[in-house]
Protein 1
Amino acid sequence: MILELLRRIFCKQEVTKMKLIKNYIPEGARCSTHHGFDNGQASIITIHWTGPLPNQTPEQVRNYWISNGEASAHFIIKDEVCLQCWPTDTVAWHAGCRAGNYTSLGIEVIPKNEAGEFSDKSITTLKELIATLPKMPIVRHYDWTSKDCPRYYCDVNKWQELLAKISK
Ligand SMILES: [Zn+2]
């Protein structure tokens, strides 16, 4: 009885676990790249937002990249879902500059509102995903090119807060 009670309390407190779905972008898509990283592997993580469209699904973002886009990233997060679009040893075009693309993994987050705030579940998934990767610095798209991405976290205080939550 007590064990059952403890189990229930524990399970209630447990945060939703990341659902990692691997669905790589097919060869020949407009956003395809076939290059390796400058040093053989990524050494930095770049965080993005997908824009002020909170109702998008990760699949819609992926499909947009395949049919219309020249850009893409390795992961798309929305709440507990993490859709992996590229293997982590493949370069994707997401950082807006060569230095960023050829050194970093791109993680896109679909925001919970038009302001660009990430949901608590998305932040948890981001943390869980980062925990599975080798330890490396985490930067914003903004840090590469001054693009307002991820917009809500271009504010330095909000970024520091987020960084503290997702870092190893
Ligand atoms: Zn970006």
Note: The two ends are 36 Å apart (CA to CA).
Protein 2
Amino acid sequence: MEPCDPGQLGQTLLTGLLTLQKHTTTNTIVYRQRDPFWCTRVVTGCTDGVGKAYAFELAKRKMNLVLISRTEEKLQLLAREIESKHAVKTAVITADFSKGQAIAREIELKLKGMQIGILVNNVGKQYTYPMYVGEVPEQELWDIININVGATTLMTRIVLPQMLLRKKGAVVNVSSSSELQPLPLMTVYAATKAYIRSFSEALRVEYQSEGITVQHLSPFFINTKMNAFSHRLQENSLLVPDAPTYAENAIDTLGRVSHSTGYWAHGLQYFFTMIPPVLVRTYVGAVMNHVFRKDYMHNVKPQMSFL
Ligand SMILES: NC(=O)c1ccc[n+]([C@@H]2O[C@H](COP(=O)([O-])OP(=O)(O)OC[C@H]3O[C@@H](n4cnc5c(N)ncnc54)[C@H](OP(=O)(O)O)[C@@H]3O)[C@@H](O)[C@H]2O)c1
């Protein structure tokens, strides 16, 4: 049997304890006084799901934001909503990360002169539904690689020099529990998230002595449009929280644990998931994705063709 990493297990339990502690001690002012990162926060993929919830949660804690996503109207709407609700400053950058390196140059220019305290590399793309690799349109595969791997890598490279100068900053990389083992029918998505884990862990060793915090988040399922392929993942439950619940929990772990699922119930799920060996987990993942594929074929696809 594959041994359970005691360090990660400890961090998982700590995440749960921090969540409990939050309900008794944390309020905005206390958090700000302890906040070691200050300055502006950048959130990618922020007009929906986890990114949007992260943006709101950071604004609630009185942090100014740079919002980066692909849909201009959604960005403008979000910026207005955040500013009016939370009295913080926002800036928006419209960027389609599927366009690759050229977009990174544009973002770098627009971020020039801003002091970035935290970068939340949240943007991510998943298959439309669980598919065999040969079924996924070539463009979709290439977009997933550009968005999940390229954006995180290049965004990090953009903010590192100024964080190094100040000897202060945090990079939060939103990965996925799909990186815990290969995941058939979501093969490429899971592989990109395995990259994010490796990238985060090596980056941390490179820069931790320079005052830069690198956090890797591995959530299990969250109720967002990313999982629209299955009705089972579109209902809130203990194991499938909505995005605001997830973000509120995950933000509390920053600066405290370097790897986390970000949400206490996912921490328990992580513990039980890691007990069987990789091969067993891979097969269980395949079975699970066949169920989701059927959900899509029977429920979602017929509705889409009807429209
Ligand atoms: N949901 C889950 O169950 C789950 C589980 C584990 C990990 N995660 C990870 O969590 C992160 C957020 O996922 P989510 O569920 O919140 O996703 P989501 O609901 O699909 O939202 C994705 C966000 O990214 C933006 N976006 C998509 N493609 C983009 C592109 N090419 N360029 C710029 N922005 C783009 C979207 O913009 P629009 O508003 O214009 O669509 C949206 O704001 C991802 O990294 C994902 O892999 C999610």
Note: Residues 117 and 169 are 5 Å apart (CA to CA).
